[in-house]
Write a structure and sequence with these properties.
Layout (H helix, E strand, L loop, with lengths): L1 E6 L7 E8 L6 E5 L17 E8 L2 E3 L1 E5 L2 E5 L6 E8 L9 E2 L3 E4 L7 E2 L7 E5 L6 E4 L3 E3 L2 E4 L2 H5 L3 E4 L3 E7 L2 E8 L6 H19 L7 E7 L4 E6 L3 E7 L7 H16 L26 H18 L5 H16 L9 H6 L1 H4 L14 H17 L6 H13 L7 H12 L4 H8 L6 H10 L2 E6 L4 H6 L1 E5 L4 E6 L14 E5 L2 E2 L4 H6 L7 E7 L2 E7 L9 E6 L5 H11 L4
Parallel strand pairs: 1-12, 18-19, 19-21
Antiparallel strand pairs: 1-2, 2-8, 3-7, 3-11, 4-5, 4-8, 6-7, 9-10, 10-16, 12-15, 13-16, 14-15, 17-18, 20-21, 22-29, 23-24, 24-25, 25-26, 25-27, 27-28
């Protein structure tokens, strides 16, 4: 058994001291590998940059350690029976995928800092924590002794984050004899009865989709922070959610986000942790695991996260439509939908999937993935007269791939959809998954099936509608943040221009009221700073409008049959 020991001297420095004890060694040369990335965020993160002072010893004597790549070490073991490797790790990243140490808690994602002993990853792994006696541990791993956790193998070890502190709060609800533990670290006043009722409702709905649950228990590890934050990461039988500010947890706006991210991460227990792309079964932590099905792994999960809240009655239909409309607007405000398919964007996650990148290059697998999932769900319902839907697809993915430990390919997924819906669904993949065809007309047509429509309305923001540019303003500046291609602004403005005045009148977070008092058909003169140089530019509206606002709404003329379709889709009255 490989043992990993964690301790610390001064938590205010954020440094953890880590020792790996390697028994029964028979190798002359031993390699240690630290992950270069973590599941749930498909980009290289180079965790090794947070390690310090890697040393090794055998029989009380130091032995040579040589770094051979950015995150791989060679230990000259010399056949010694027992080895010890020591190093320090800087735990000061408070988000869903990081680690944090201070005087109040230890929050640890093992994938950030625990090395694999190459060739022995399948052996049992033990994690021993030298922490204060009164600290409790929240983790998906069993605690075999006080402050000692046991994993079946290295993958399970690093896929089981933990929070240890003296101030953890915990409640448990049970669905289908499966315990679901909700842990909270941080200052807040949770309404536990409401939380458990809502969580139980969406958990039941998700279990109904798949029929059974992949693991014996589940842990929501919540870091509730004193500042605004939102992030969640899935794990084999747990999730870490970082959310704030804590004093607003039960207010409608933040509680909605709490429910949404929790439902999303729970759905990942099936979709991606078990129903996994072939390219990532098993995970290769040494480098990129390229795959083209991010629209399944993340897009479908994004769709189901909120959809399950509506189907379980936790969200009303208007609340659900509010979330859908936010997704729609994010999609239509981003012109990258015209340039890269969602499948190609999945592949390019490893390049620039988690940062803005250059304008209009790549589409979001989360946003377009969710909308193409909605489209597919409705198309399957129409094509099969409500006999089949996206639930059928997910259940079959679980039964034929996830439950059997078989990774699926993009061809497997397409063929499964064609089996359910027919050959006509080839066009869905050609146009909307592997192509960049506009989605508006198809989505509107399928929404009619459930008595709804995709509404397109002119943008009320004059800068966006008439001139094609977006701004962000604070007390000091108004800056250009986005420009619509082929718009009047595209030939006169650039991103990061600092707007000073319109028609000679100073802009003070009031550009819209100023424009409302001007005859815009004659154009406007903008004064701005660009590279610290003062400039004046002329803008004239064209015959087009830009940044159209899209929303989903019920149709007043919906038929009784369409209203029944709506009820079958959302499990709510029309």
């Amino acid at each position: 058994m490989i043992k990993h020991q964690i301790s610390f001297n001064n938590p205010l420095t954020h440094f953890l001291d880590i020792t790996i004890i390697i028994p029964e060694n028979k190798e002359q040369e031993l390699y240690l590998q630290l992950p270069a990335w973590r599941p749930g965020r498909y980009e290289l993160q180079h965790f090794a940059q947070k390690l310090r002072g890697v040393t090794a010893s055998a029989n009380g004597q130091a032995i040579p350690v040589q770094k051979v790549t950015k995150d791989r070490w060679l230990v000259q073991a010399g056949g010694a029976d027992k080895l010890e490797v020591r190093y320090s790790f800087y735990a000061r990243q408070m988000d869903g995928g990081g680690s944090w140490l201070d005087e109040e808690q230890l929050y640890l994602n093992g994938i950030n800092c625990l090395m694999a002993v190459e060739g022995r990853e399948l052996e049992p792994q033990q994690l021993q924590l030298a922490i204060p006696d009164n600290w409790q541990i929240a983790c998906g791993l069993p605690e075999t002794e006080r402050h000692t956790l046991q994993a079946e193998n290295y993958d399970q070890l690093v896929d089981s984050p933990l929070i240890a502190s003296a101030s953890l709060k915990k409640e448990t609800y049970t669905v289908a004899n499966i315990p679901f533990h909700i842990w909270i670290q941080g200052d807040c006043r949770p309404d536990w009865e409401r939380i458990k009722e809502d969580f139980e409702a969406f958990t039941k709905e998700q279990l109904a989709v798949f029929g059974d649950f992949p693991v014996a228990d589940y842990h929501y590890l919540n870091e509730i922070l004193p500042y605004r934050f939102y992030h969640g990461v899935e794990h084999v039988n747990s999730t870490v959610i970082t959310l704030g500010p804590g004093e607003l947890l039960m207010t409608p706006a933040l509680y909605k986000e709490f429910l949404g991210v929790s439902s999303h991460e729970l759905f990942h227990t099936w979709n991606v942790k078990q129903i996994r792309p072939k390219e990532m079964l098993p995970y290769d932590f040494t480098g990129e695991n390229y795959f083209r099905t991010g629209y399944v792994a993340e897009g479908i999960t994004t769709y189901y996260g909120d959809y399950m809240l509506a189907r379980s009655g936790v969200f009303t239909a208007p609340q659900y439509f509010d979330e859908l409309n936010t997704t729609l607007q994010r999609y239509f405000d981003d012109h990258s939908r015209q340039h890269m398919s969602v499948a190609d964007s999945s592949f390019d996650l490893w390049l620039d999937g988690y940062k803005p990148g250059i304008p209009d290059r790549k589409v979001s697998i989360y946003i377009k993935g969710a909308l193409t999932a909605l489209l597919l769900d409705l198309q399957l319902r129409r094509a099969t007269d409500n006999r089949e839907n996206l639930d059928t697809v997910m259940r079959l993915l679980w039964e034929e791939f996830g439950k059997k430990g078989i990774g699926y390919t993009e061809q497997d997924y397409e063929q499964l959809v064609l089996r359910i819906g027919g050959e006509e669904f080839k066009g869905y993949f050609e146009r909307y998954i592997n192509g960049t065809a506009p989605i508006e007309d198809a989505l509107d047509e399928e929404l009619h099936f459930v008595g709804c429509t995709l509404k397109a309305e002119e943008n009320a923001m004059l800068t966006e509608r008439l001139f094609g540019f977006k701004t962000v303003a604070d007390a000091q500046t108004t800056k250009v943040t986005a420009i619509a291609p082929e718009s009047p602004a595209s030939t006169t403005l650039r991103v990061e221009d600092e707007l000073i005045a319109v028609n000679g009148r100073k802009i003070e977070q009031n550009i819209q009221p100023l424009l409302a008092d001007i005859d815009l058909s004659q154009g406007i003169e903008l004064t701005l700073f660009r590279n610290k140089q003062l400039r004046q530019v002329q803008l004239r509206p064209s015959q087009q409008t830009y940044y159209t606002k899209y929303s989903i709404a019920k149709r007043p003329d919906a038929t009784d049959a369409e209203k029944q379709n709506f009820k079958l889709w959302l499990k709510q009255k029309f």
